[in-house]
Amino acid sequence: MKIPEVSIIIPTKNAGENFRRVLLGIFSQSFKSFEVILIDSGSVDNTLEIAKEYPVKIIQIRPEEFGHGK
Question: Contact, 16 vs 40, CB < 8 A?
């Protein structure tokens, strides 16, 4: 397996239906040497279901563990 040149890290919590457009944009670009890592802090909407439609690595954390600096 080739090591990706770029890691796209997306923190989410209840990203909503527009999140699908974000992932579609990422995966429809011509540059392909990337990975997408989703860090979700307790979504209760359909964020995780949308993410599972794409080759995304999902990491789930408790909301109280979230911090942009972590």
Answer: no
What are 10's strand-pairing partners? 38
pTM of the model: 0.86
Per-residue pLDDT reduced to its tens digit, 38-65? 999 999 999 999 999 999 999 999 887 7
Residues 62 and 70 sit within 8 Å (Cβ to Cβ):
no
- Write out the H or E segment, with its range, that includes residue 30: none
Q: Which residues of 22-53 are buried (b: 16+ CB within 10 A; e: fewer)?
A: ebeeeeeeeeeeeebebbbbebeeebbebbee
Phi, psi values for residue 48, rounded to 5°: -70, -35
